[in-house]
Write a structure and sequence with these properties.
The chain has 1007 residues and is an alpha/beta fold. It contains 44 helices and 23 strands.
């Protein structure tokens, strides 16, 4: 018996289907179906996953979708051939792009106009007059569906379907309207329906399916169900046999519309590459670089990727013309062609980077190029791509947001009728324990372990885990095509205005072979760009990433002191601890520094061996010259993925393709388990080439660390370039650097008050916000030596209002508060924020006087005749604010105080507790018991720290670092997470210049 299921929705019919596409395919194959149609609602979201699973199980996948019609009933359409698939994608795109996100709909005429290559099935009977015209548009290709759900109404629906088929003169075809791959998934399907309608399962009533019969059934079960209609059953296989479209037949081509006359894409790429080499190597191109370039160009031509490189070159060129700072990174930094085209800034030949990490003939996968742009100006770049290629040929990659952890528990619990209080308690204890909770834990949370709804919530939430919830936008992935993108993959509107996304995520397009460009946003590039502008304006010096002086000893001296607040990538607590231990003196030291503080090297036991060898404590030995060439830069410790690939090829005999397979496994989310398949091959390969088994196993254990996230060398090198640039600017232009950071917020690791305090410790005079002196942005004064805080620092003052103040001020400033209000047209509530921030001091003196004068102003409605005019000239003596009141107001309105640090005010209390300052810790001998207090600015508990919590406390003298052991953390969790001012007591530990307080207790200062 041959049966094909023709109506089947997965969980990508969001909150309707209750099975993953892979589950449906695997179950269909197990039940003996030869064909399965995936027909999700107005989308092909899950089709790639189903396609890959179908190839694995030897099942024929029919490409289809259920389309919502604005003037007719829903209809399921199937792609019979490549043209039909293109029409299917175009129809879904039109349906989605003509409606807001989450909605869809087509006029029947649009479907009729693009019916070529499509077959149609009406899943539920409808009145003749609503479908007659549509059926005519599908001659010999229209079918009426028949479904038996073993529930009330089956007989009536069957009679209607039979009558309609007879009236239309079209065949009757059975289906099972599949919502689940197994009956046991029905309770979750009920929960999904309840979530969709925003009600509990108990109240969902007829919105729920009456039983679990809409599940995937095998040929024999369907034959029994439709024993009286064998011809309608047989037509399922007949319809399936007419569908030949497959994702394997998709042919993707990059646009090449900008080629000069008479040039192919490969020829143009070659010409641009050699033009770029002349710029990169003005003294002549080294022979080894030419050799590498020729190798890369030959491979790019063989794989037909020239258009991809040309598109990136065009996008980066646009950014440079607009003055938008950008830099390529990731595996693209392994490419000499990318370096010549100025897509990346790292010379891969000089760095000895492995090109196969980026592109290989064996792999034949799309190259992966990431380009970072200033985060405040990236939208200009994205809109340029849309404008140049059109919405029909360019779209961003989607990201599927899935139900995870607490969200799964909360949504399931609410659907099953738990109270909000119960849902909150359950989600807190269960999500943190991976859904594995004991009765004791439930009891502690105030829940009954014997409550059936609690148990059912836990079990169904586990099933819901990983289900797609909605589409979001990938961080920067763009797909650009020569032919219409909307005929290759459906495109739809994103929630963000001006954005459209394709319906496939990153892994999907990689599997199908679509190329994406990653246009990413990086806050530090914004800060660097603004810093360069400030230096140009106030110091008359033209700087860019390429012209910052290299290998400056003063910069490395600064970093060896862990003086890196605000610096890109090396400002975290862990990096600051590593800097004095590593003591970087060269650019490559920064490359290593950035790579070391990652979970991979920590888990792989690479950090301490590297440090011991760097400082001569441990001897560096290499088992062969070939291995020395690979690991020499990192003292025999494989820190980078490229080194793992090279070792696999040189020491274990892997081909380049096999080595890249190892690299991809290292990057996979299930790397720990997937890596085991390579162990025997690697170890035995090393032994066969004369290496000791112990050495081979040690290397492989190092590799396992990469499963926990490690950096490729090319990625680390690209980031090191920005880290060095930001370090150089901090070292030589601290005022401009701090102003640029403040003007680029939100970004980075530290709050503005920490950045400003750090600038003051470096001798920068910081001046307060003042409407008479401040612009919207923070600026420099006195020849670039002093930093003036900008109006943007005032919380509650809008961008437009702040810029109106700046433009209205002109050359002469404001006469009084009323003059400010009238000229800048500022509403009262925003003027009040300026007054509380002390920004009206130049007009009124004290904050209270400013508030008084504001109250005396007439109406501040935009159309009032007396706008901003003083209505009361009464003078009163107002008491001045105390220092404490002013500091509190500063933090409330600006987020920092230039008058006093809060800890200065709390110092008498801290002295009574015997607490020293952060600066005072430097004088305390190692091993001595001591206490320190401060304002919490950083709290971290990384997974690799084995339960240890790291805390940074800031006071008026600097930053103190606390190490909180797991047992102390559990005892003091409430204080650590609930208080702003903390006191840590413990034993001081010092290693070189690294000072930490290993705490025995952490208390809130309020206690």
């Amino acid at each position: 018996m041959d049966y094909a299921e023709l109506v089947c929705r997965s969980n990508f019919s969001f909150l309707r289907g209750a099975s993953h596409p892979e589950e449906l395919v695997a179950t269909a194959a197990r039940l003996g179906l030869r064909s399965l149609a995936l027909t999700d609602s107005d989308g092909l979201y899950g089709v790639v996953k189903a396609h890959l699973a179908a190839k694995e199980h030897g099942l024929k996948l029919i490409l289809g979708a259920e389309l919502t019609l604005e003037d007719g009933p829903p209809v399921v359409v199937y792609a019979a051939d490549a043209g039909g698939y293109a029409n299917l994608c175009a129809l879904v795109s039109q349906s989605r792009m003509t409606h807001p996100k989450g909605e869809a709909g087509l006029p029947w005429r649009a479907l009729a106009d693009r019916s070529a290559g499509l077959l149609a099935l009406l899943p539920e009977p409808a009145p003749f007059e609503r479908v007659a015209s549509l059926a005519e548009a599908f001659p010999e290709r229209f079918h009426v569906g028949l479904c038996r759900t073993l529930s009330a109404g089956d007989a009536a629906r069957e009679a209607q379907a039979e009558l309609l088929a007879r009236e239309l003169g079209v065949p009757l075809v059975v289906h099972n309207d599949v919502h689940t791959h197994h009956r046991r998934r029905q309770p979750l399907q009920d929960v999904l329906v309840s979530i969709r309608h925003g009600m509990t399962v108990d109240k969902a009533g007829t919105r729920l399916l009456p039983n679990a019969e809409r599940t995937l059934k095998g040929p024999y079960e369907m034959a029994r169900l439709f024993a009286d209609r064998p011809e309608a059953l047989e037509r399922t296989a007949e319809l399936a046999s007419r569908c030949h479209a497959s994702l394997d037949d998709l042919h993707y081509r990059f646009p090449e519309e900008d080629l000069p006359p008479g040039r192919t894409a490969d020829q143009h790429l070659r010409a641009l590459t050699y033009e770029g080499l002349a710029v990169r190597y003005p003294g002549g191109v080294p022979p080894e670089v030419v050799k590498q370039i020729e190798h890369e160009l030959k491979l790019i031509a063989a794989l037909d990727f020239a258009g991809y490189f040309l598109a990136l070159w065009d996008i980066v060129g646009f950014a440079r013309k607009r003055g938008i700072l950008c830099q390529g990174r990731g595996s693209a930094a392994n490419s000499a062609v990318c370096y010549a085209l100025q897509i990346t800034a790292i010379d891969p030949v000089r760095m000895g980077l492995l090109f196969e990490r980026f592109l290989s003939m064996e792999r034949k996968e799309p190259p992966d190029i990431d380009v970072d742009f200033e985060h405040e100006r990236r939208e200009e770049v994205l809109q340029y791509v849309y404008e140049k290629h059109g919405r029909q040929r360019a779209g961003m990659v989607c990201e599927v947001i899935c139900y995870r952890g607490r969200l799964s528990l909360r949504e399931t619990g609410k659907a099953l009728g738990l109270s909000l209080d119960q849902v909150d308690k359950l989600s807190k204890v269960a999500a943190s324990n991976g859904f594995q909770v004991t009765p004791e834990v439930l009891l502690e949370a105030g829940l009954s372990a014997f409550d059936s709804r609690v148990q059912k919530t836990l079990s169904l939430a586990m099933e819901l885990e990983g289900f797609p919830r909605h589409l979001s936008i990938h961080v920067g992935g763009f797909v650009i095509t020569r032919e219409p993108l909307t005929e290759l993959v459906p495109v739809e509107n994103a929630a963000m205005p001006g954005r459209t996304v394709i319906q496939w995520e990153k892994d999907d397009i990689n599997s199908i072979g679509l190329l994406k460009v990653d246009l990413l946003a990086l806050g530090m590039l914004t800060a660097l760009s603004k810093c360069f502008a400030l230096i140009r304006e106030h110091h008359g010096r033209e700087l860019c990433l390429a012209t910052i002086p290299a290998e400056d000893p003063k910069v490395y001296d600064m970093l060896c002191e862990a003086d890196s607040v605000g610096v890109f990538q090396i400002e975290s607590r862990a990096q600051m601890n590593m800097l004095p231990r590593l003591r970087p003196r060269t650019f490559y030291d920064l490359v290593v520094e950035i790579a070391l503080i990652r979970p991979g090297p920590i888990v792989g036991n690479m950090v301490h061996p590297f440090l011991r060898r760097r400082h001569g404590i441990e001897k560096v030995e290499y088992p062969s010259e070939a291995v020395k060439e690979i690991l020499g830069k990192t003292l025999g410790v494989p820190l980078f993925q490229e080194q793992a690939m090279k070792l696999a090829m040189v020491a274990a005999g892997f081909t380049a393709g096999e080595a890249d397979g190892l690299r991809r496994v290292l990057s996979h989310k299930r790397a720990e388990s997937m890596l085991l398949q390579y162990r025997g091959r690697f170890v035995e390969g090393c032994i066969a080439r004369g290496y000791a088994r112990g050495q081979a196993e040690e290397w492989f254990d190092n590799f396992r660390g990469f499963a926990h996230y490690g950096f490729p060398e090319s990625h680390s090198a690209s980031f090191a370039l920005i880290a060095y640039a930001s370090s150089w600017l901090k070292c030589h232009y601290p005022a401009a650097f701090t102003a640029a950071l403040l003007n680029s917020q939100p970004m980075g690791f530290y709050a503005p008050h920490t950045l400003v305090a750090d600038a003051q410790r470096h001798g920068v005079e910081v001046r307060p916000v003042d409407v008479q002196c401040s612009r919207w942005d923070c600026t420099l004064e006195d020849g670039g030596k002093a930093l003036r805080l900008g109006l943007r620092m005032v919380k509650g003052l809008g961008d437009s209002a702040g810029r109106r103040v700046e433009s209205a001020k002109g050359e002469g400033g404001f006469r009084d508060v009323g003059d400010l209000a009238r000229r800048a047209r500022i509403p009262r509530h925003e003027l009040t924020r300026l007054a509380l921030a002390g920004a009206l001091a130049g007009l009124c003196g004290s904050r209270r006087k400013a508030l008084w004068e504001l109250q005396a102003l007439g109406p501040l409605d935009s159309d009032d005749l007396f706008f901003g005019m003083s209505m009361d000239g009464t003078e009163v003596e107002l008491p001045s604010m105390s220092v404490l009141e002013r500091v509190v107001a500063d933090y409330d309105t600006v987020g920092l105080s230039l008058e006093k640090h809060p800890l200065e005010l709390l110092r008498p209390t801290l002295k009574k507790l015997g607490a020293v300052t952060a600066e005072g810790l430097k004088k305390v001998p190692s091993g001595r018991k001591v206490a320190v207090g401060g304002m919490l600015i950083c709290r971290q508990r990384p997974p690799t720290a084995k339960g240890i919590c790291f805390i940074s406390l800031e006071d008026e003298t600097g930053i103190a670092n606390l190490v909180v052991p797991p047992d102390v953390y559990e005892q003091c969790r409430k204080q650590i997470h609930g208080a702003l001012f903390l006191v840590g007591e413990g034993v001081l530990e010092r290693s070189g210049k690294v000072t930490n307080l290993k705490t025995r207790s952490v208390t809130s200062l309020s206690q």
